[in-house]
Design the sequence.
């Protein structure tokens, strides 16, 4: 008997299955179970490291925005480059 999923597979898709490398180890062996846990743990570590980098960049952006408020404001009397162009 064929399952519903097996009936849905088109011949074009069946040909592509040969191109996919077989990298998975069956979980029935002790090594397979350990390898599955390793893959899961490495994916979690990668996601956590990306999240930490994102939080670090967000914090640095926030600190930079707060420090921008402490920048000195240009005085109105100084003859900066905009004063000559305005015709004053």
Sequence:
């Amino acid at each position: 008997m064929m399952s519903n999923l097996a009936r849905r597979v088109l011949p074009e898709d069946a040909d592509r299955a040969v191109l996919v490398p077989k990298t998975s180890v069956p979980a029935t062996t002790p090594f397979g179970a350990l390898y599955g846990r390793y893959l899961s743990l490495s994916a979690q570590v990668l996601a956590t490291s990306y999240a930490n980098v994102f939080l670090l960049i967000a914090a640095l952006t926030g600190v930079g925005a707060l420090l921008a408020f402490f920048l000195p404001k240009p005085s109105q009397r100084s003859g900066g480059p905009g004063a000559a162009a305005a015709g004053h």
